[in-house]
Amino acid sequence: MTNNGRTNEANGSLRRFMEGLKRRNPHEPEFIQAVCEVARSIYPLVEQDAEYRKARILERMTEPDRVIAFRVTWEDDEGNVRVNRAWRVQFNRSIGAYKGGLRFQKSVNQSVLKFLGFEQTFKNSLTGLPMGGAKGGANFNPKGKSPREVMRFCQSFMSELFRHIGADADIPAGDIGVGSREVGFLFGQYMRLTNQFDGALTGKGVSYGGSAIREEATGYGAVYFLQNMLEQRDESMEGKRIAISGAGNVALFAAERAIRDGAKVVTLSDSKGFIHCDSGLDEDGLDAIKTLKLQRRGRLSELDGELAGVRYENGKAPWGVSCDVAMPCATQNELDDEAARTLVDNGVQVVVEGANMPTTDDAVARFRQHGVQIAPGKAANAGGVAVSGFERSQNATRLSWSREEVDRRLKDIMKTIHDKCVSEMERDDQADYADAANRAGFRKVADAMLAYGVM
Ligand code: NDP
């Protein structure tokens, strides 16, 4: 068959795969978006390898091993009975026990958790650590709830989840709406129910088994990834204007690392608006924002007029501000085509995804068309799960490593992930960082699945 004939056949079978995927997963747009993005990148590998095709690796990899759905009933401070929906999606454990965060947000549903669990499988594979992919959460909105309400919710949530997790089975961690406070409540209930103190959750407080640098890891790791990309371009962080979205765990520690490494962080945002500091935030300003967002759980609007040189813009995303680097660190599909066009017009060079799938397909296409490099979340935000992997190792050996040691290992892992992407791009000069991350993550999982036979 000619090359053209083979390409047409491959395109046809990729199209049939995607049509089947859409048919099997109606009402799951986020999951379909995530799978289609990966499938387009890895299809050449599947096409080239008769074993992958015969074993139907792609079809198997896009069905979760298991989806556990359950009800969470709890009582609010007025004594009203409240009911939420919760899930744990155990996606793929071919290369290690399930590992992935828990998200508490009112928009959580099965589609969102399947997309996150699917992506987690590839991300965990890229870290080189033995971790399978999973994700979980509930459509519980922690905003406006008292600490005791959050505690009662977490305890009720864990009263079902504890049956399905364990240090060698499935190890959840935090994500949107689940920070160290929630992990504390969840781990306390897990211990009460199982009578075990083990590494079944990560993101724990340092005084009870948590790792140094876990809180900082995703944001720091994303900036380390950016540094590797810039070095590859013979550039440095010094003076780079970075627009960051979000003001949560990922965004704030990305900002901290970037400021310490000489960059200018010109924006941060939350779900109501963004702050703009044209000369770049300093560490004192960032500390005030951290206290507001991570401790008081307030709104950025409260800082309007409070910090010198900082302006608050209500109801807008930060992508209109001119920058060299954009770091979407809030949520999925937050950076759309219109925002991408504005960023391109304003001269953006690099996009680093701190959040999972924050850039829409159209926006990705526009960046590609204009030569803007994109570091995909699977690679760039893998630092969080990598340090969660280190937390497991420390728990298993009853040791705790210093901040310096964890930070050094985190830097090494981010460099290794970056280098894996570069070597995939060297194999195929049409591939970009996103294709490369998908392919490098895929190979390891696919080969493990082949080793197990048909199951
Ligand atoms: P947090 O809950 O700590 O912070 C999320 C931030 O994003 C908040 O500032 C929130 O605003 C904002 N936000 C949430 N939804 C929206 C929205 N629809 N529009 C605009 N802003 C929004 O979460 P994390 O920082 O932990 O997670 C952020 C992203 O990073 C997620 O995609 C997560 O999956 C991903 N990630 C997180 C990791 C981690 O270690 N935490 C690891 C890898 C990926 P507000 O304050 O108003 O709620």
Structural account:
With 455 residues, the chain is of the alpha/beta class. The protein has three domains: 60 residues; 132 residues, Rossmann fold (3-Layer(aba) Sandwich), CATH 3.40.50.10860; 164 residues, Rossmann fold. Helix content is 49%, strand content 15%. It has a seven-stranded mixed β-sheet with strand order 9-8-7-6-10-11-12, with helices on both faces. A five-stranded mixed β-sheet has the order 1-2-4-3-5. Helix 2 crosses helix 16 and helix 8 crosses helix 15. Bound molecules: NADPH dihydro-nicotinamide-adenine-dinucleotide phosphate (NDP). NADPH dihydro-nicotinamide-adenine-dinucleotide phosphate binds next to helix 9. The site of NADPH dihydro-nicotinamide-adenine-dinucleotide phosphate has 24 residues, from helix 9.
Number of domains: 3
| H/E element sequence | HHHHEEEHEHEHHEHEEHEEHEHEHHHH
User: Which small-molecule ligands are present, each listed once?
Assistant: NADPH dihydro-nicotinamide-adenine-dinucleotide phosphate
Count of DSSP H/I helices: 16
CATH architecture call of the largest domain = 3-Layer(aba) Sandwich
* Strand residues, percent: 15-25%
Strand tally: 12
Mean pLDDT: 96
Helix share, percent: 40-55%
Give the low-pLDDT segments: none
Radius of gyration: 21 Å
Label the structural class.
alpha/beta
CATH class designation of the largest domain: Alpha Beta
Largest sheet: 7 strands, mixed
Going by CATH, what is the homologous superfamily of the largest domain?
A: NAD(P)-binding Rossmann-like Domain
Global outline:
globular
For the biggest β-sheet, the strand order reads 9-8-7-6-10-11-12
CATH topology of the largest domain: Rossmann fold
Give the termini distance in whole angstroms: 33 Å
